[in-house]
Amino acid sequence: MIRYGAPTLAGMKTGSLFNADADDAEALKRETERINRTIEGKGARLTVLKQGKDRTLFYLYREALLTQCLTCPKAQATLRECGYGDFTVCGALATLRQRLEDQELFPHEIGLFLGYPLADVTGFMRNRGQNCLLCGCWKVYGQADEAMRIFARYRKCTSIYSKQFYTGTPLAKLTVAAKPA
């Protein structure tokens, strides 16, 4: 979770995805609940998006940042085209989970749930992943210079968080509290 979710834990990014082995579903559920008790009071949450036979896809997210995305009219229009109708966090995540179950390919609108710029998400969808200006944490179809700066910040954050975690800093201290509204 630290390796893939550091920018989300730091409050820099809406969400992060990562997989984990799923050999013991009950242990995984208990660990997810334990993590949520640690991070929820700081505006972060961990949830399962898809449970496979051998792997589980997790989504670590900042509820306030996801809500901000889901209330954006342009993001809603894109999501509506993909079959979303409920733009609450719970409703949108339920639709995303269903789309992950129903589709063979990964639903590309997931970039909005990860905090990718709308222009890059729609550019990826329109171009079917081809013709991007830059490829880093995501494929960039718009502001490449800004994306490079963001990628560098994410790399630095991940490096710092990894060092801190592996030298004993607990998850609670690595999770930045959400800014008051």
Q: Main sheet, how many strands, which sense, barrel?
A: 3 strands, antiparallel
Radius of gyration: 16 Å
Segments where pLDDT lies below 50 for 5+ residues? none
User: What strand order characterises the main sheet?
Assistant: 1-3-2
Q: Would you tell me the overall average pLDDT?
A: 94
Distance between the termini: 26 Å
Number of strands: 5
Helix content: 40-55%
Whole-number count of domains: 1
What structural class do you assign from the helix and strand content? alpha+beta
Number of helices: 9
Task: Encode the helix/strand succession as letters.
Answer: HEHEEHHHHHEEHH
Outline type: globular
Question: How large a portion of the residues is in β-strands, by DSSP E?
Answer: 5-15%
